[in-house]
Each structure stands twice: as structure tokens, then as C-alpha cells.
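Backbones bend. We report:
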Amino acid sequence: MRAYVRFALPSGAHADACPGDLVGRLWTAAIRLDDPRVSEAHALVSLRGAQLKLLPLRGVLAVGGLQVTEVVLAPSTRVELAQGLVLEVLDVQLPERTPALAGLGPQPIVLASGVHSLVEGPHLIPRYLADAAAWWWSTGEGFALQVPGQSPRAVALDDQVEVMGLSLRVVEVPAELLGVPETHQRGRLHPPVHLVARYDSVQVHRSGEPVVVIGGIPARILSELVAMGGLGSWEAIATEVWSQDTHDRTLLRQRWDRNLQTLRRKIREARLRPDLVRADGHGHFELVLASGDRVTNET
């Protein structure tokens, strides 16, 4: 079964898109939107492990009023490409099996679309690293492997390759064995949340549960993320939070790290999704909204 997502378009029509398909103004786009606010190649549908995602290319995406760097596609998810221009997910079909790389540990590692870097450890990192021992990437029909100084080579299902003294093989694993989705924790589905940001406090509303209030500096960090559209560098956020004392970058970073740990502890104590505030590894932090989540900025 091939993966696909079915969208309800602003026109009222329905259209399907598969991994690798474009959303945009191009006449070749699977989801073609004839709107000047939409880029020619606005976004890309991508299969990442057991999830279909929408990734921004030349345009922006927003969910619940916040700009995001990716959208996990699930029924009822509403993705805004421009003000008032919304795609609603009607249906998502995922493959029963997915490619994985065996030989790096006791269990195969899922090969999501995109580039993976093989580094010492060994570890497979889902992004391009210039000093990696090898790179894997999806070609649409299979995978390619490149070792520094050599030309890329095609790698098909069941092919075995030698890298870093390891015998690696591309296999397929059942999708249901990929692990617990990030919206689950200890078997419990996290209900949608409504965050009300008031700078010195952030209220967390969930259906059937008491309102949780996060206060102090952690609340200011969350509120600044909301004000920045859900995405910002640690330095930009910290500069706003400690606006009177930003001359010492080392001290600023120490304060950031200490209070970020406090924020994450409060997130755990409130039984929120642990990925609600996520780092990209390059100094940027994102407020990650799942399907049904929303925010209100009252700062």
C-alpha cells in the first residue's frame, strides 16, 4: 500500500498527494493552488518513518496560528499557507512496511526520507554532516550511499554494504514496530492543549483536566516563542527575556540553559508532550503543535 494524504482544498475539492509531491503554484504540483501568496514550490509531502509530514520549501506553514518547520499530517489537521488559505487533512494512508538499516545495533534503524549521516559510535544522524563517514539518502525509488572521495552508488532492498568495518543491509520492517509515536507517552495519548500566553504566566488548558499554570522565567520563554511565531534562536529569545542584562553572552547562555531545564521539568510535571519545546541542534528552538493544539497570545 502506497502512502498518501488527502486534502480538502480551499475550493472545496479534494486532492491526494504522495511522498515527494509538491504543494504550490507549479502546474506539476500535486496540490496546485492558484494564489499569488503561494510559492511555486511552497511545501513538500515527505514520509518520515511511520509519519507523513508536510515540510516548507519556499513558503511558510502555520498550525493553530503559529509558524512551524514541519507538520505531522493527521486527519483534521488544518495547515495554513497564507492568511485564510487552509488545507485540511481528510485522510492519511501509511505503508504497512518501511525501509530500515540493519547492522548498527540490535534493531534496524528506520530510514526516513532525506539525508542521513553515518558517524563514529556508530550513529545514524538524520541530517547532512560534512565530516560523516558516509551519507545515505532517499532517491524515491530506493536509497543512495556515498563514502567521502567516492561516487554515489544505488542501494536497493537487501543490498549489503561495508562501511566503517560494518556490514550494513537495507531491510523492511512492519510499520507498527517503529515505536511509540511522539504524541504518546507510556501508552497514553496526549490530548490537544490550548496554551494561553500572558508573558509572566502560561495557562495550559486540556479537556477534562484542571488548568495548569506555568510561571516565572519558563513562562516568559514560552511566551516569547509564541510571540515569535513558534520558532526562534536561543539568543533572540534570551535577549528578550533578560533585556536589561545582555552584554555578557556567556552569562546569558548559562541563564538560558538553566531556565530551559526548568521549563522542560515543568512540561514533564504538567504531563505535556515532551517534544512541546524542541531544539533543532543549531541553536533554534520550536514550539511544536500537534493536531488540535492551539495557542492564544495575550502578552
